[in-house]
């Protein structure tokens, strides 16, 4: 059945004003001032009244531990797998899965299988090859082959640097990873980016900067994440983004972590924009299902909680309602900016021929009203209508 959303305030993410949006066969068929349902028979089209709602692209969360993560507090602290309804509740229609700290009991076969499962349940899902560790633990034995031959695999990550849990990679090792990912991406039409976990070491972004300065690898081949971990890292991230790099904020956090030196994402976005960072170089990700460990200065575990994908839209909303960031700017950090960084050519924009991944949110309080993924209802009138297989 065709779907026609009428009279919604469309943000593509740039504002288009009140429009009608026609959805057909999982794609956006048209975005026009008026589309007349009388041109279709009643059995062919479902008409949705979008009055009082903002229509925007579905969120892209490019850093989620879809098979679970963690384990820093031993086996009992392994976090559970991602559930479909968590993404739906958070307005997320596209997910990129990563492994993280545990590259031994969390495997690439498991990651790819989970990505395929989420796709069958209605989301768009991709994944990165590897984990914190270097050498990269791949699916086929080669990072380049993983990206070229495996549909779901789009790059490498999350590779850890500046962290006591990392493999302490050298500049040459990181350069080789980026080179293989880049060539794999070129040959397969994918981004081939390297998602880089940043710890709280004073080295911060130094290793990435050395690779960019001493090789031909472009700065955009890296997406460093957790840039809001501490003040010094945030300042380094501002300089990195002004040079042309991407920087990624992590939205999952705790009151205890924020009481330390971490910057709340919505506040960090406002600051970066004020510092002159181009808005298209900033992304938000949730780190969903990842553990949120807290270590003391000696590296001993103090406590651990779990990241939530629902934190992504919350920080986007807070950027608007609490920090005064324009709506169209705030939503870019989880839509068009991510699509650009990861070369998701059919995602992140409300336009004809793009995938019909859409959110309808209340124009006043910005609460999520409805979610459409691939042209299908996932949430309708604030009720989740599509749940995971075992939910």
List keywords for this structure.
391 residues, alpha/beta, Urease, subunit C, domain 1, TIM Barrel, 2 domains, nine-stranded mixed β-sheet, six-stranded parallel β-sheet, 11 helices, 27% helix, 28% strand, globular
How would you characterize this protein structure?
- There is one protein chain.
- The chain is α/β, with parallel strands linked by helices.
- The chain folds into two domains: 2-56 and 346-384, Urease, subunit C, domain 1; 58-342, TIM Barrel.
- It is 27% helix and 28% strand.
- The protein is built from eleven helices and 19 strands.
- The chain has helices spanning 84-89, 108-121, 143-149, 171-188, 206-214, 231-242, 255-258, 265-274, 311-321, 327-332, 336-342; strands at residues 2-11, 15-24, 27-32, 45-49, 53-57, 59-64, 92-97, 124-129, 153-161, 194-198, 222-225, 247-250, 282-285, 291-295, 301-306, 358-362, 368-373, 376-380, 383-384.
- The strands form four sheets. Strands 1, 2, 3, 4, 5, 16, 17, 18 and 19 form a nine-stranded mixed beta sheet that branches. A six-stranded parallel beta sheet has the order 6-7-8-9-10-11, sandwiched between helices.
- Helix 3 packs parallel to helix 4 (171-188), helix 4 packs across helix 5 and helix 8 packs across helix 9 (311-321).
- The chain is globular.
- The model has no long low-confidence stretch (mean pLDDT 95).
């Amino acid at each position: 059945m065709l779907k026609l959303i009428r009279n919604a305030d469309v943000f593509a993410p740039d504002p288009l004003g009140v429009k009608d949006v026609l959805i057909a066969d999982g794609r956006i068929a048209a975005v026009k001032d008026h589309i007349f349902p009388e041109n279709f028979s009643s059995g062919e089209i479902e008409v949705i009244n979008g009055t009082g709602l903002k229509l925007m692209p579905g969120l892209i969360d490019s850093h989620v531990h879809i098979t679970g993560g963690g384990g820093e507090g031993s086996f009992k602290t392994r976090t559970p797998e991602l559930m479909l309804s968590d993404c739906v509740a958070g307005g997320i229609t596209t997910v990129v899965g990563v492994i993280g700290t545990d590259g031994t009991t969390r495997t690439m076969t498991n990651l790819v299988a989970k990505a395929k499962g989420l796709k069958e349940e209605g989301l768009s899902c991709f994944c990165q090859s590897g984990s914190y560790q270097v050498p990269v633990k791949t699916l086929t034995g080669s990072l380049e082959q993983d990206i070229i031959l495996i549909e779901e695999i789009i790059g490498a990550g999350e590779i850890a640097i500046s962290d006591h849990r990392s493999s302490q990679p050298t500049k040459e090792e990181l350069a080789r990873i980026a080179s293989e990912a880049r060539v794999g991406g070129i040959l397969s039409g994918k981004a081939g980016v390297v998602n880089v976990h940043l710890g709280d070491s004073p080295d911060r972004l130094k290793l990435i900067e050395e690779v960019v300065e001493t090789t031909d690898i472009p700065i955009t081949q890296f997406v460093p994440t957790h840039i809001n971990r501490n003040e010094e890292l945030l300042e380094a991230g501002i300089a990195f983004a002004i040079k042309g790099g991407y920087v990624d904020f992590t939205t999952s956090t705790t009151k205890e972590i924020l009481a330390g030196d971490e910057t709340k994402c919505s506040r960090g976005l406002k600051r970066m924009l004020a510092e002159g960072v181009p808005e298209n170089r900033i992304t938000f990700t949730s780190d969903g299902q990842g553990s949120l460990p807290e270590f003391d200065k000696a590296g001993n575990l103090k406590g651990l909680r779990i990241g939530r994908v629902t934190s992504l839209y919350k920080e986007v909303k807070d950027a608007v309602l609490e920090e005064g960031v324009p709506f169209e700017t705030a939503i870019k950090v989880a839509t068009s900016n991510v699509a650009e960084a990861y070369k998701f050519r059919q995602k992140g924009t409300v336009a004809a021929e793009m995938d019909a991944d859409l959110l309808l949110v209340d124009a006043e309080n910005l609460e999520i009203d409805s979610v459409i993924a691939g042209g299908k209802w996932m949430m309708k009138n604030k009720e989740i209508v599509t749940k995971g297989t075992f939910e």
